[in-house]
Amino acid sequence: MPNNKRWISLFILILIAAVILFVSLYFIYYQKDVNEIIYGLIKNYGYASIFLISVLFNMIPQPISSDVPMSVGIVSGLNPIMIIVLAIIGSTLGTIGSYYVGVILGKRNVTKLCSAKKYADACRLFDKYGKWSLFITVMTPVPDEILCWLAGIFRMRMVDFAVFGLFPKALRHLAVGLIVANIF
């Protein structure tokens, strides 16, 4: 029986890695199409799409910040408060998911999902600035998934991850959402 659990875990791990790899490559090669897809999803599915996109954008390395779908939803005329709340919840769940991707996959498997250079750069940043590197990246719209993976790989305490990663990202979403809502 334990052998079956190992095979099931391995299968799930390979499936997660394949989905992350496929979606990452799609984002890289079809950037313009992705923007149109995001707009179409938000236009057709509204709040649910904001939530799901926020979760995915915070788990999968890609060049689009999760602020983009939130802003598109607000500009499209959806309720700004509802959009901000859903984006924060989705972003938080996605960021926690990124942490556990690092925990589950570990260094050996994570390096297969991103380039060795990106991984090495993120490690240097994490080694040099520690928790503050996570804080700085989540406060900016640059992709922070790899640093969240590293937090999981290095087993950062969840309290520290929340203080330096989750809370600042929620504040950023709140600020960006309120700015966009007041401008448009």
What does this structure look like?
The chain is an all-alpha fold. Helix 3 packs antiparallel against helix 4. It is 84% helix and 0% strand. It is globular. It is built from nine helices and no strands. It has one domain (2-183).
List the keywords.
184 residues, single chain
Our count of helices gives 9
How many β-strand stretches?
Answer: 0
Backbone structural class: mainly alpha
Any idea what the shape is? Answer: globular
Task: Extract low-pLDDT stretches.
Answer: none
The fraction of residues assigned to DSSP E strands is under 5%
Report the biggest beta sheet as strand number plus sense, adding barrel if it closes: none
**Relative helix content:** over 70%
Q: Helices and strands in order, then pairings?
A:
Elements (H helix, E strand, L loop, with lengths): L1 H28 L1 H15 L1 H11 L9 H9 L4 H34 L2 H14 L1 H8 L6 H9 L4 H26 L1
Describe the structure concisely.
This protein is mainly alpha-helical. It has helices at residues 2-29, 31-45, 47-57, 67-75, 80-113, 116-129, 131-138, 145-153, 158-183. It has one domain.
